[in-house]
Amino acid sequence: MSGQSQALVVASGVMWWHGWKWSGSFTALDLLAALTNALNGALLARRPDHYRNFTVLGIMFMALLMGLGGGITRDVLLNKIPDALANPAYIVVALVGGVLGYALAHDSDRLFREGLFQFVTSLALPLYAITGAQAAAKAGLPVLGILAIAAIAPTAGHWYVDVSCGVPPKQFIRNEWYVTVALFTGLFWVICDSAGLAVWASYLAAFVVGYSLRMLALYNAWEEPLARAPTGVHVHDDHPFLGRKLKGKSQRQIATLGLTVREPDDSQAEE
Q1: Which of 4, 64, 136, 165 is 20 to 30 Å from 41 by CA-CA measure?
Q2: Could you write out the three-class secondary structure of the chain?
Q3: Would you state the torsion angle of the CA atoms of residues 77, 79, 80, 81, taken in this order, to the nearest 10 degrees?
């Protein structure tokens, strides 16, 4: 067989439009989680603490990393072909989320972007946690394995973006009950499912609990406990007045969160 014939045979086996699926087996909710996470990925890549002179294509890649990274990681850990690669709908909705996030990050006020980022995170976090727990239970994992997937699935995408931007992964630094919310959501879903609730009732109940817990943590500034600091760390006493979410944060911590761009002090520069 000639090289041209072999190429024709290979091309004829390519499934150009195969695999599109928008509903069934939690696909719609998984797609919604991918969309919201991708939007957040674009917003996150535009924050001052993450931005690294990205091109437009770079922002879209960050959206794909955050939108699809958690689902792909979940499926690989469960030893299955990732749905995000088998179903083209995932990449399409993630790109849509990336474009939307890029537009909002470019045109809107910084505090509005931060509020939108936290709101969308509060939606995506329980969605991915529940679909992760459901997929792990379907694969026959024990409870601890289910909880591990429930924590990894919604947070892995953020990890990939953080590492790509050269900042400490959100899972390891002090923040408003990020991994904790994912674990509680997964655990509540397991309890509801074990109690014999209907599939959608379990999903809805776990989502309401996870979303409410995340919003309460944001409003009341509940944070995962900080490890004891090593000696020599400077403790700040200056507290900004930017609402409950930022209560107790120093100016340096505000800058670390990406909410301010700190200009060099001329007096210090002269010294």
Answers
A1: 136
A2: CCHHHHHHHHHHCCCCCCCCCCCCCCHHHHHHHHHHHHHHHHHHHCCCCCCCCCCHHHHHHHHHHHHHHHHHHHHHHCCCCCHHHHCHHHHHHHHHHHHHHHHHHHHCCHHHHHHHHHHHHHHHHHHHHHHHHHHHHHCCCCHHHHHHHHHHHHHHHHHHHHHHHCCCCHHHCCCCCCHHHHHHHHHHHHHHHHCCCCHHHHHHHHHHHHHHHHHHHHHHCCCCCCCCCCCCCCCCCCCCCCCHHHCCCCHHHHHHCCCCCCCCCHHHHHC
A3: 80
Q: Which among 123, 115, 124, 105 is positioned nearest to 245, based on CA atoms?
A: 115
pTM metric for this prediction: 0.74
Amino acid identity, residue 267?
A: S
Q: Work out the average pLDDT over 229-256.
A: 56
Q: pLDDT tens digits for 182-234?
A: 999 999 999 999 999 988 899 999 999 999 999 888 888 888 777 776 665 55
Is 43 within 8 Å of 117 (Cβ atoms)? yes
